Structures are given as C-alpha cells and as structure tokens.
Amino acid sequence: MTNVSGAPGTAEKAGTPEPAGERRGSETLHFARRNPKLLIGLGIVLAFLLLGIIGPFFVDHDPNQYVGPRSQPPNGEYWLGTTTFGQDIWAQFVYGVRSTFLIGTFGGGVAFLIGTTVGFVAGYKGGIVDEILNMLTNVVLVLPALVVLIVAIAYLDVRGLFIQGVFIGLTTWPWAARAVRSQALSLATRDYVDLARLSGRRTWKIITTEIAPNMSSYLVMSFILLFGGAVLTAAGLDFIGLGPSNGVSLGLMLESAVAWSALQLGMWWWFIPPGLGITIIVGSLYILNVGLDEVFNPKLREL
Amino acid sequence: MTLRVNDLKVYYQTLRGDVHALDGVSFDLADGEIMGLAGESGCGKTTLGKSLIRLDSRMRHVGGTVELDGKDVPIGDDEAMVPLRYHEISLIPQYAMSALNPTRKIGRMVNELLRARGIRFADVSEEFNRRLELVGLDTDVLNRFPIELSGGMKQRVVMVISTLLNPSLLIADEVTSALDVSTQRSVAESLVEFRDREYVKSMVFVTHDISLVYQMADTIMVMYAGRIAEKAPASTIINSPRHPYTQMLIGALPEVGSTTVQGRLEGIPGTPPGLLNPPTGCRFKDRCPLAFSKCSEQPPLVEIEPGHWAACWKTG
Amino acid sequence: MLELSHVHKVYRVGAFGGGRLRAVRDVSLTVKPGEVVSLIGESGSGKSTIGKMVLGLFRPSSGSITFEGTDITTIRGHAARKEYYRRVQGVFQDPFSCFNPIFKADRVFEMVRTSYFPRTPAKEWHGKVLDALATVRLDPGNVLNKYPHQLSGGQLQRLLIARALLLDIKLLVADEIISMLDASTRIDVLNLLSDLKERGLGILFVTHDLSLGNYVSDKSVILRKGAIAEMGPTARVFDNPLHPYSRHLLSCVPQLHRTWAEVDAELAANPPEDVVLPTAPDEESAPLIEAEEGHFVGIDQG
C-alpha cells in the first residue's frame, strides 16, 4: 500500500482521456480487442477447435485404418508420417483433436458444474451445510478415481464419449470444489456481499453476480485444468482398453507411441504431434485465461 | 543536528508518468527530537518515512540530499544503504504485527533477524531482556508464538528489536493506528521513554492522528501534497497554527466534549490535487479560503519565528 | 423504534466447536427516531457484532431485537427480510470493500432499483439518485459512471449513504463509517449524519473513537467485552464518567488541547468518587444500575 495520490488506486482519474462512446456496454469488448494475450490465446484455441471440427471431413479413411507404408516420416502424402502399422498420423491427429475437445469440454464441464456448485454453496452458506458438503468432497477426493472409473466403466455394455465424460466428471470435481469453496469463503465475508444482502438480493443472485464474477479468471482457470485433467484421464482409460470403441484421441496416440517404442526408434513424428497438440491447447487456454483476467479486472487494466 | 534533509525529491514511477510524491522537502531534526509527521493520506508522509531508509522498486530518488550525524545518506543507492539500515536508521513498519512469521517462536525470529545483521543474540540478550521489561513485557515472550501475543505486545516486541542497536534515527510509521486507545497510549509512551533513555537519538513518528502526535512529539511537521506546509513545536501547531491548511485541519477535528450542539466543525472542501501532474504554485490554493493572485507562485518554506516554519504567502 | 433486549451472541470456537466465545453479553438498549446512539468500544467489545445483528446479518444467540414492534430474529423468508431492509440500512467501515471492484460504483444504486423499485422509470429514478447525491453533497459528474478505485474513500462512503437514502429508511446502522477517512472529510460525514438525524432518522453509530462518538450522538453506550459498561446521555457519560473503564478510556484518548500528563494530573487532583457497580450473578447476565436519571453503569469485568 502506498499513500500516494496519483498512483494507481487513488482518487483522480478525471484527466484520463477516454473516448466517451466506448465507456458503456462495449467497454469490455474495447479492452478485449486490445489485449494481445487474449487474442493470441483465443486465436490458437479456435484454430485447434476449427481443425478438430472440419479436419476430419478432409480425411477420407478411418484414422485407425492401415492405409500406408509403415513407419514413414512426414511426406507429401502423409503429412505427419505413419505409425509402425502404417496408420496415417495426420488423420489420427485431426480426429484426436476433435475427441480431445469433446472429452475435455464434456468431462471438464461436468466436473466444473458439480465442483463449482458444491464449492459456492459450501463457501457461501457455511456452517452445517459447509461441513456436510466438505465431508462429501473429501470422501470423493480420497477415492482412487482411476480404479473407480475402471470398475464402473468395465461394467457398462455401451461405451462412448458421453459415458466416459460423465464418469470423469463425477470423479474429478472435488478439488475444484475445494478451490472454489476457499475462494467463495473469503469473498462471502466481503462488505459488498453484505451490502447486496441489504439490497434485498437472493442468495443465488449474490453468488452469480457478486461472488462468481470476482473469481471469473479463477473459474476459467479451474475449467482449463479440469479440461486438461479430463483429457489425460480419458487417455489413461483409452490406453487400458476402456475407451470408446475405435476411439482416437491425442492421449491415446501418445500412449501407443510410447507403447510401441516410438521414442527409442526415433519416430518423433509419432509422439511430437499429439504431445505438442495437448501442450499447445492447454497452454494457449492458460494465456487466454491471463488475458481474460486483465480484461475483466478493471484494476489490472490501468497497468 | 541529527538529520538534515535538503530539497528531497522522490517520485513514484507509474506507467502514466511520475507521481511527485515528495517534491522538495527540507527540514532538520535535532538530537533528541521526536518529530510528528502528520497529514492526510497521499500527502507524502509515508513516502518520506520510507525514503529515509529504503526506496521500494517503484520509487526513484530524483534530487536533494539527506545527512545523518553530518554524514551523507545515499538514499538512492540500495547497496550503500545496507550498512546504515538497522544500525543507524531503523524502522518500525506500519504492519509490524503481521510481519511476524506465525510459525516461528518470537525468540527464534529475533535470533535470525539479528544474525542476518551480523549480530550474535548472546551478545545483546541481556540488553534485549532489559528493554523488554522496560516496555512491560516478560522475557517469556521469546518462547511464544506471535499468535499468542496481543497487537500491542507484538508492536512492543518489534519496537525493542528495531531499537536494539541504539540507532540515530527511528522511523515509526503509523505504529499505533491499529491499536486500541489504551494500548496506543502505552506504546506511545514507551517510544518517548526510549528517546529519554537515549536508545534512539531522534525519531520521526508518522501518523494521521494529530491529537496523538501532540501527546508525544516535540515538533510537528504537517505535509500537504508532497510538500511541507508547516513545521513547529507541537503546542504551536495545535494552539497557534499559521498555515491555512493546518488551521483548517485542526479545526476539523472533533474533540472529546465537542458536539454538534455547540457548533458544527467544518471539513476542508475539495480533495488534494493529483501528484501525477501537480499544479504549479501553492498546492493548497484551490482549497484555500485565503488564496490570492500571488499563490500561483510556489511559496517558500520560511522561518516565521524561531523554530516555526511555514510555506504560505500570507504568513511570510 | 429499535429495541434490543437481553441480546447475547455466543460463538463456538475451536476445532470441534467446543469452546465458547461470548461476543455480546446481555445487551439491552433502545434507539428512538431522530436519535443518534453511539456504540463505543475497543476491539473485541462486540460493538460491530451488535450492528450486524441489528442488520440481520448475524442472528443473536438469545434475546430479542425489536424494530417497530416486530422481533427481527423471527423474520423468515426473503420477502419479509427485503421489507425489513426497506426501512433499515447499513453503511460499513471500509468503503473500498463495499464496492464490488469489477463493477462501476453507481451499481449500488441500480441494485436498490432492481430490488425495490423495478417499475420506476429510468428518468424518474435518475432524478431520485441526483436528489440523494445532493443530500450527501456529491457532484454527480464526479462520481457517476466511475469505478470504485477511481473515487476517494470519502466519496465512496457518501455514495453508500446516498444509497441508503434511496430507500425510505427509518434506521441507519453506521459501522465505523469514518475510521478509514481522512480528517478533513471525516467531519463532513459526521455532519451529514447529524443532518439525517434532523430528518427523523434513528442512527446506531458504531465507533472505537470516543471523540467522534460524542460529536454526533445523543446517547452513548460504552461496551467492554460484550457487555455494557456505561450508558446514558452523551453529555453525562463524557462529563461524568462513572464506570472505572470509561474513566480509563477517557484518560487514554489523545486530546487536542490537553496532554495525557495534564489529564492525569487533573484526575489525581480531583479523584472521582467511586460508584457502586452491579455484580453479575453468573457468567451470562450483565445487569445495569441506574446511577442517575437515564445514566446506567454496568458490571465490572476487571
């Protein structure tokens, strides 16, 4: 804390020139368009998303089909080369990006929904509600998630992305709940929350309009981590044969590359694309998150 | 003369330009003097306190000199300040109480702190214990955790630590602001006692509470918008201030016993100017009822009677 | 109008909720329309807890808080609570933390509008806001459409008072509202409270600062460790403090024209007479004795 007027955080901004037209509703957009982190992060994520959506339409064979010569490095016909079995890695990659986004969004989304709801209610309500929810969270947290998933999924006849996502969501939410709870707990004691109560606001409205926006970057961050976690968990399940039948994902590609000794054989084109893909997707989501933080937090805008 | 500050300028760097937090401050501090440094938030009092011991990364020494016991204090040179800190100039920070590591016992913390300054605790422990007793603490506090001490006790522990090497200058930054009235009084009185016993040669007591500083300080310096408005013996500042800002500030303080029924007190209209692009001339002129044409020039700080300095064209 | 009767607040503390912390002990007091009552106490005296209980943010452990005939501890349901806040509002200590930092400061007005006046046309509402701003002496051009960090503490605090005035309130709980403000603006906020009092508003003024407490208030309540030490008309409490604790507090307050030494000397020259203090029959109650008309002293807690 410095007590200097004129330093950011004090009283006079009267002289700051700001175009009057951009001050109201479009203000967020105004800052969003000028934030390089947001633009770069968003650009990369959207590019991958687009690749995952339209890429598969340009691949005319099944990604797991043995279509070409074995162990080919990247060339004109097979852009990213082929596997030990002659599968087209480019085809696997674009399908993998698609299923990675699907499982990440779905599994991460389910976990996020449960986690934040439990976290907000526990943190805001406190008392006995908090204790019960906290206990539930801790119980699920200490369950060996992968073992539960294996057992549960092994008993199911039909396996698809949907079921896999639901199960991943149901087992990975606890840490998000704990993180959200601790934040909500501290935000719930802020004076402006009391003021909202004095303004006759309902609980859910206070949570959604007073508390949640103040941790929006935190929430996005949680979602990004849950997204990444879901991708990796799905890869693990795929690897032990409990994934969707005929599944392709970046995680699965990595696992099979490792399983078939791509590393030792120097087949870099097999493991680098999926590894880099996951890294870039999660990494650019992170950059996106930092950018969002700067856009939504007026205090950071000043700097 | 312990401390002599001459035309000191310290600016804060921000992305929008320099904030002129301290803009040409000159004053002397005599041996044994406790100077109260008062003013509203943003007037530069905390910046002045910090400048004398350590500039933080955003602060820049722009001009002026500081002399302590006749020697130059290189306040802009962080390295060169190291041997002076704690030994010659010491600070009790504003949030000293929360600065204590909650997982360490007080004794261990004191030990580490002293070792970092190249002092063996065993050499000073006797003096340390004597001073703890002086401020009314049992030496047993060394075996306790910070959480077991009250705010006033922690503040006193920090006080004893900071003054252990008998520094020439002690800077106390809002040290009593977070304390209850009765604790505030005893901490303030301990500080005076330390001066009387010459544990510290002189002291700058930064506070926003003029009535508190009147209780303990010999002189009071009132700052406004990065400059000195007035400096005088404490009773002069309270009973016959000359600068219009000081007069209005004191007029705005309710006292025990004053009520709205007896007559309303008036605040000072307006807000202090921003220091990013400070106005020229007297910085108080926009809020000053006495302002006239001459105020567009900066009034110098002049000694209007012995020991009484003011920067106002109307008093000069 | 507002009446607290034998209000207690006990917190459960410790790992298993085994410990008990008595924050408010057997407090009874009243606030009449057009009256400012100061709750004065050091940290841990329970003064803010009382304020929060009156605002319905905490529930008392026992005792009743009656506002215009209704016991507010029995208020259940959102609609009833909302009605209560139409008449009772609060302003808190830290103006900076009362504003959600990601929204503009004048959103606090909009919240009142959407909750209480959804049918008022925008134009009429804007007029009401301007009126309220005029009452708290703020220039709309300086404060509307700004973010909280662009405004000063004094401006924010006055915005909050203006917000409370948009509702037809009868009682304002002012919890340490000036302790974060600068000396030159403090007094303006205090004068503002005194204006509101003239309009017939009851004000519960919570403060740790004795000199501020007595500047505006008609009645002063000095609290210690959750119980009332002394209560009475402000002039009597300050001119003739009866409880040893009040006397001690008054002797420690830094005064502007008298030093501590002078105060001590005066006390030594004219030692005040001892007053018989009530004794508490148990750990829970805290009876009061009426030492002179309307002037009560409470138990001695050492």
What is the SS-derived class of chain B?
A: alpha/beta
Q: Mean pLDDT of chain B, rounded to whole units?
A: 88
Query: How large is the share of residues in beta strands of chain B?
Result: 15-25%
Q: What's the total helix number of chain A?
A: 13
Content of β-strand of chain A: under 5%
Features:
heterotrimer, A: 303 residues, mainly alpha, 13 helices, 0% strand, globular, B: 316 residues, alpha/beta, 4-stranded antiparallel β-sheet
Structure explained in plain terms:
The complex is a heterotrimer of chains A (303), B (316) and C (302). With 303 residues, chain A is an all-alpha fold. Chain A has 13 helices and no strands. Chain A has helices at 27-32, 36-54, 89-125, 127-142, 145-154, 161-187, 191-198, 203-211, 216-239, 250-259, 262-265, 268-296, 298-301. Chain A starts with 26 loop residues before the first helix and ends with a helix. Chain B has 316 residues and is of the alpha/beta class. Chain B has helices at residues 45-51, 78-81, 106-116, 121-134, 151-162, 181-196, 210-216, 234-239, 244-251; strands at 3-14, 17-29, 34-38, 59-68, 71-72, 89-92, 169-173, 202-207, 219-224, 227-233, 302-305, 308-310. The two termini of chain B are 25 Å apart. Chain C is an alpha/beta fold and 302 residues long. Chain C contains eleven helices and twelve strands. Chain C has helices at 47-54, 78-87, 107-116, 122-135, 140-143, 153-166, 183-198, 210-216, 234-239, 244-252, 260-269, and strands at 2-13, 19-31, 36-40, 62-67, 70-71, 88-91, 171-175, 202-207, 219-224, 227-233, 289-292, 295-297. In chain C, a hairpin with a 2-residue loop joins strand 9 (219-224) and strand 10. In chain C, helix 4 packs across helix 6 (153-166). The two termini of chain C are 34 Å apart. The B-C interface holds B 40-41, 151, 180-182, 184-185, 188-189, 208-212, 214-215, 238-239, 248-250, 252-260, 264-268, 271 and C 42-43, 152, 154, 182-188, 190-191, 194, 208, 210-212, 214-216, 234-235, 238-239, 248-250, 252-257, 259-260.
